[in-house]
Amino acid sequence: MNENMLKVFSVTKSKHTIGTYRHKLLELTRKEDSSALFEWYKPLIYAPGNDVTAVFLASRISRFAAFVHWAAASGHSCDFQSVFLSAASYRKREPIFTYHVPDFETFHDSSHQARLSHIQYFYQKVLSPVFQQWCAIAGLPSRELWGQLYYQVPHFLELASARESDEVKHLLEKDWNYIKNDAPGKFFLEKQSPLHFHIRPILNPVDNSTTYTKPVCCLNYKRTKQPYCYKCPRLTPEQRQEFYQTYQGKKL
Ligand code: SF4
To answer: Which of 140, 144, 197, 220 gets mutated to test ligand 1 (max ligand atoms within 8 A of its CB)?
Structure first.
């Protein structure tokens, strides 16, 4: 394992002693355990409701999902039974989550199928049941949480790729593309894959290059009482054009 573990994915092999929250990841598949996490986390991020809390948690746990991809591409599996989620909140700042993953194993069978089975297990038996609990607590459709993952995972994989061999980079891309585009709904305990989003190309107001809308809104506007951001899919084309013109005016 290399420095990507801590720096990119916030994963440690040794137990964190600091932290006000520490819980087995798999136990978040239980309603009471996830409800306790919401109760702890919600006031610390000044979330006005459980919807914002759920979306923020989905965004944070996406980092661990990216780690599972990276570990598999690097030839390792992890025992999800022993994974702990820890978080500490300092000086009323937003808590930072760390993942304690003590048990790694090297794949004996490093075939594409063995890697994918491990990744599938994570999505099907760990992440999807957790997302189901969070959606139920928040009263949100699951796409609102999967959209966070869709947006965050490639970001962390790109960061990790900078330190990896071409072979690992290739596997990261191949596996993520499969999960994003081809994995069937049953991977996510749904009829259809919740990862099919319509991302629209838009003009970057900074340099007029092409950028893209986010898959879903991150609901931060509810916390900060700010208007929607430029990439938010909730913005109408007219509102986005207005935003663009305002930014162009500021550049002059
Ligand atoms: S408008 Fe943008 S930043 Fe604000 S909540 Fe939506 S996606 Fe997030």
So the answer is: 220
